[in-house]
TrEMBL record:
<feature type="domain" description="Ubiquitin-conjugating enzyme C-terminal fungi">
    <location>
        <begin position="33"/>
        <end position="84"/>
    </location>
</feature>
<protein>
    <submittedName>
        <fullName>Ubiquitin-conjugating enzyme E2 1</fullName>
    </submittedName>
</protein>
<dbReference type="InterPro" id="IPR009060">
    <property type="entry name" value="UBA-like_sf"/>
</dbReference>
<dbReference type="Pfam" id="PF09288">
    <property type="entry name" value="UBA_3"/>
</dbReference>
<dbReference type="InterPro" id="IPR015368">
    <property type="entry name" value="UBA_C_fun"/>
</dbReference>
Length: 88
């Protein structure tokens, strides 16, 4: 979280601050949901998982392309990265 985040989008800043407080300020270390953490569309991630890719790899590919919801051409871009990684 940065000052520019605060200035540009106060609502998002407050939501992020609340998320961090709930997940990191408490002592019981709850399991972090990486899909929620990075603001990704759960159905998009699930579509790739159903193709046999791990959630971790899907999230990594979507984040590298700055894609939150993989539909159409975005889905093709993510798939290209996943297939390239799996063939190496």
């Amino acid at each position: 979280m940065t000052r520019s985040h605060y200035i540009k989008d106060r609502k998002s800043f407050d939501e992020t601050a609340q998320y961090w407080a709930e997940n990191y300020a408490c002592g019981d270390n709850p399991k972090i949901d990486p899909i929620e953490l990075y603001g990704l569309d759960r159905e998009s991630v699930s579509d790739f998982e159903n193709m046999g890719f791990t959630q971790e790899k899907v999230i990594e590919a979507m984040r590298s392309l700055n894609i939150r919801n993989a539909q159409g051409r975005e889905q093709e871009k993510v798939l290209e990265i996943l297939l390239k990684e799996s063939s190496s």
